[in-house]
């Protein structure tokens, strides 16, 4: 349990702590509870060596009196600390115990930097041996007292500061070194930065993933439902980082007394379930002398506690709705499954076995009710789950069922150096075939292939309009997407910056319209007429240019005559063979250094309606990508200035994101193409202006389709099937779609080897014009893999079953691996293929006895070995 008081620390006195210890001993200790953790307020001043002293007011008979009492009850004791050294200790310049050559006045990092969230102290310079000696002296003292646990609060990056303006990492490592010889548990707090999860795991036993769960509403409650529900999205990110050796900490579990918790009974059960399935420590925040019967039933349910102590953090199937299924696979082949209803009214929640990786029937037990519910073939539906309620199940597969085990499951043991993802994974990819459907039956020539045409509607936020413009929609006149922009004043203008080799200005033609001056890259090109003496022409190309160098260009049109000037769309031409992957500014693949903020809900036409921004010169973004080119896309505005661009560490160009008037959304301010297909890094450094913004990066990669453009002529004698070669195995292709319509395999298209043939019978039925056929390729299982570069590195999986199959990626960068079953080499397999494949069946062993077995895979050759899925049949 964890005793916390917000009333100046007077509550955590000797008498109260002994009462809590006795209550735990009587009520909770038989169920495994063993820590009495004392939060902030236990100490008062320092000794002659700068080490914390317990409060004599709170502990008049000495701190050892309380510690000994707790230990005598068979329990352990925890206390609290924060990073840094106080200015008073710096000024006192006290000697460090056992190291007279070291003084507390010499330990602060210079120049002085804030150490904690509140600004109580300064960072310690851990590069100095005396600093480690100082921490060692405190840890030694704690060990002498009999301390078993240390909560280290206000750890950064985290605790509200993730920009490295505060950074306690060096002190975390120092404290870990000081505490480890004494076996003192080391818990970090609060809201630790996920980007440094591997660092926290290296040095600590646990880490708080969010802010305090307490509501800080004295006299009313300990917590509130929003403080519990906000943990779900946090755990969706953190779950895989908890496990043996280090645990995700959700803060105190306040479910023991309905009068003080601030939660309904359903919410209390949901909180206890979330802590249990997350393998989070059960730090009870209640006064243990006042636990009610329902609270005791939650805290002492042995089947639920067994889930918690199994140490297998659950993961969500999805967090897209308030009805969420969270699950984990246990060592005995069973699943723990929690059905949460986070909504405000009763609802049905369904767990599909396939979402868990299970094929086959299963027995289901309700763990809170301690009741067997029966056998279910393909899933379980809980009806009328209360608002903010939960059902907690144990799902035991029947014999002969198959289980898919993902690469990041705790049951998979890795030996050697392995990394999850790191750009070596494949997510779901959609690549488009740019299809032009023509009809030369009445004469003319079909357009040439090899060029992709992208249609940009007039309301695209990347188009800049100057002057007074309006939008007219639902016109019913045949305009593209049934709308146009229009202006009435001579001198009003549009401009659009694009990446490509050519562009068409497409608009209506009508007697009310006149001349438009066209400029490309600031150079006057021609005056075009949009006048038509009679009738109305829709989607007319009034200006087109091709043969531009592939790169950034700008087209500008200025109204010269006529009552109206209209813009319907642009046709942008780019070379074929390239696909674009857009990374939003908040993508994990983009790294920010310095002080950056995120602005959302702007309504300015930004990609996904948000940007990242920095104000200090020298602040920077960088992104490592795989491909042949990249665009830096941002807003342009008078408040912005210059940005220095580097590619692979080499300065390329200073670009300007300023704009004298108005605001430009989704503007390409830097572009590079023609890089060798591989790993590259773009870096942008703020040089001038009030702000630097990042909206998105567009990464160019070789298309998975060859060709990725095609022309089909409806003229009877010219009709022909279109054949496309795939850059992935045909087994990876999950669908082909035109808009929302999915093409039918065997009717609209066929596959043979790595080729897809689009049938002319399908193509002839399509309307003339430009369209995209979207080819979607599957991802690695759960969008992730583990990979190693070291020969001899291995993975091992223990199971009880009759058949085992290894499904993983194949790729040009892979080689051979040895596969062992029960320590016997069965087969050397080759994972090298000409193209990247997913979920390829590499090895199967059947006919095993219905006993325990071990699968072991060892890297032999190649640049990489990837692991994705192990599938086995239960005995």
TrEMBL record:
Reactions the enzyme catalyzes: Hydrolysis of terminal, non-reducing alpha-D-galactose residues in alpha-D-galactosides, including galactose oligosaccharides, galactomannans and galactolipids
Record key words, sorted: Carbohydrate metabolism, Cellulose degradation, Disulfide bond, Glycosidase, Hydrolase, Polysaccharide degradation, Signal
Keyword Heme: no
Domain Alpha galactosidase C-terminal intervals: 322-395
Entry-linked InterPro entries: Aldolase_TIM (IPR013785), Carbo-bd_X2 (IPR005102), GH (IPR017853), Glyco_hydro_27 (IPR002241), Glyco_hydro_b (IPR013780), Ig_E-set (IPR014756), Melibiase_C (IPR041233)
Domain of life of the organism encoding this protein: Bacteria
EC number: 3.2.1.22
SUPFAM superfamilies in alphabetical order: (Trans)glycosidases (SSF51445), E set domains (SSF81296), Glycosyl hydrolase domain (SSF51011)
Stretches assigned to the Carbohydrate binding X2 domain: 706-779
The family this protein is said to belong to: Belongs to the glycosyl hydrolase 27 family.
PANTHER family to which the protein is assigned, alphabetical: ALPHA-GALACTOSIDASE MEL1, ALPHA-GALACTOSIDASE/ALPHA-N-ACETYLGALACTOSAMINIDASE
Protein name: Alpha-galactosidase
């Amino acid at each position: 349990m964890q005793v916390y008081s917000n009333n100046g620390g007077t509550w955590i006195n000797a008498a109260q702590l002994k009462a809590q210890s006795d209550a735990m001993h009587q009520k909770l200790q038989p169920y495994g509870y063993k820590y009495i953790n004392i939060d902030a307020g236990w100490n008062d001043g320092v000794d002659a060596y700068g080490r914390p002293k317990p409060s004599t007011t709170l502990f008049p008979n000495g701190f050892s009196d309380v510690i000994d009492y707790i230990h005598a009850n068979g329990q352990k004791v925890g206390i609290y600390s924060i990073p840094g050294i106080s200015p008073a200790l710096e000024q006192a310049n006290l000697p460090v115990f056992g190291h007279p050559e070291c003084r507390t006045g010499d330990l602060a990092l210079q120049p002085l930097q804030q150490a904690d969230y509140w600004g109580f102290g300064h960072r310690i310079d851990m590069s100095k041996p005396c600093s480690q000696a100082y921490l060692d002296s405190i840890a030694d003292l704690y060990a002498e007292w009999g301390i078993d646990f240390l909560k280290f609060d206000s750890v950064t990056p985290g605790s509200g500061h993730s920009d490295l303006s505060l950074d306690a990492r060096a002190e975390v490592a120092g404290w870990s070194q000081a505490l480890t010889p004494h076996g003192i548990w080391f818990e970090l707090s609060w809201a630790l930065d996920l980007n440094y999860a591997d660092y926290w795991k290296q040095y600590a036993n646990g880490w708080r993933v969010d802010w305090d769960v307490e509501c800080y509403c004295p006299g009313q409650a300990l917590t509130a439902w929003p403080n519990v529900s906000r943990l779900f999205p946090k755990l969706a990110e953190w779950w895989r980082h908890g496990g043996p050796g280090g645990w995700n900490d959700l803060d105190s579990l306040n479910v023991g007394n309905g009068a003080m918790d601030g939660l309904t009974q359903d919410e209390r059960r949901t909180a206890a379930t979330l802590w249990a399935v997350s393998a989070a420590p059960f730090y009870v925040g209640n006064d243990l002398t006042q636990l009610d019967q329902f609270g005791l039933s939650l805290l002492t349910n042995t089947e639920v506690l067994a889930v918690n102590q199994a140490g297998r953090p659950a993961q969500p199937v999805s967090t897209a709705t308030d009805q969420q299924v969270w699950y984990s696979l246990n060592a005995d082949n069973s699943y723990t499954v929690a059905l949460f209803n986070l909504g405000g009214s009763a609802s049905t929640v369904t767990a599909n076995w396939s979402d868990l990786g299970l094929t086959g029937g299963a027995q289901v037990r309700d763990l809170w009710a301690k009741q067997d519910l029966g056998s279910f073939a393909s899933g379980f539906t809980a009806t009328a789950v209360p608002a903010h309620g939960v059902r907690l199940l144990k799902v035991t597969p029947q014999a002969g069922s198959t289980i898919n085990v993902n690469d990041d499951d705790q049951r998979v043991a890795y030996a050697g150096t392995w990394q999850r993802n790191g750009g070596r994974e494949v997510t779901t990819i959609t690549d488009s075939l740019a299809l032009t459907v023509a009809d030369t039956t009445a004469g003319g020539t079909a357009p040439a292939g090899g060029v992709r045409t992208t249609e940009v509607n007039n309301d695209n936020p990347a188009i800049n309009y100057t002057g007074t413009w309006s939008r007219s929609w639902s016109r019913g006149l045949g305009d593209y997407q049934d709308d146009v922009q229009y202006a009435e004043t001579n001198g009003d203008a549009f401009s659009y910056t694009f990446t490509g080799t050519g562009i068409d200005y497409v608009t209506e033609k009508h007697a009310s319209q006149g001349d438009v001056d066209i400029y490309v890259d600031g150079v006057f090109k021609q005056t075009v007429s949009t006048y038509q003496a009679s009738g109305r022409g829709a989607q007319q190309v009034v200006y087109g240019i091709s043969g531009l160098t592939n790169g950034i260009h700008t087209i500008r049109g200025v109204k010269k005559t006529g009552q109206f000037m209209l813009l319907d769309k642009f046709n942008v031409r780019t070379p074929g063979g390239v696909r674009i992957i857009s990374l939003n500014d908040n993508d994990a693949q983009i790294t920010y250094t310095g002080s950056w903020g995120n602005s959302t809900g702007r309504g300015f036409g930004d990609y996904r309606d948000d940007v990242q921004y920095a104000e200090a010169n020298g602040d920077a973004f960088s992104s490592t990508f795989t491909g042949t080119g990249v665009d830096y896309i941002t807003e342009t505005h008078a408040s912005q200035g210059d940005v220095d661009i580097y590619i692979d560490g080499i300065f390329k160009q200073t670009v300007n994101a300023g704009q004298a008037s108005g605001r430009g959304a989704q503007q390409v301010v830097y572009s590079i193409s023609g890089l060798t297909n591989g790993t590259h890094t773009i870096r942008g450094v703020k040089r001038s202006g009030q702000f630097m913004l990042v909206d998105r990066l567009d990464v160019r990669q070789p298309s998975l389709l060859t060709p990725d453009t095609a022309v089909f002529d409806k003229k009877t004698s010219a009709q022909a099937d279109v054949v496309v070669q795939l850059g992935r195995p045909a087994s990876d292709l999950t669908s082909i779609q035109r808009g929302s319509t999915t093409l039918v395999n065997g009717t609209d298209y066929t596959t043979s080897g790595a080729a897809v043939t689009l049938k002319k019978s399908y193509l002839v039925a399509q309307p003339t014009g430009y369209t995209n056929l979207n080819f979607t390729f599957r991802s690695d299982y759960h969008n992730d893999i583990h990979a190693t570069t070291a020969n001899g590195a291995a993975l091992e999986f223990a199971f009880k079953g009759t058949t085992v199959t290894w499904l993983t990626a194949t790729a040009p960068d892979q080689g051979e691996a040895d596969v062992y079953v029960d320590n016997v080499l069965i087969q050397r397999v080759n994972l090298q293929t000409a193209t990247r494949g997913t979920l390829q069946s590499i090895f199967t062993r059947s006919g095993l006895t219905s006993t325990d077995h071990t699968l072991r895979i060892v890297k032999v050759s190649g640049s990489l070995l990837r692991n994705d899925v192990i599938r086995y049949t239960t005995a």
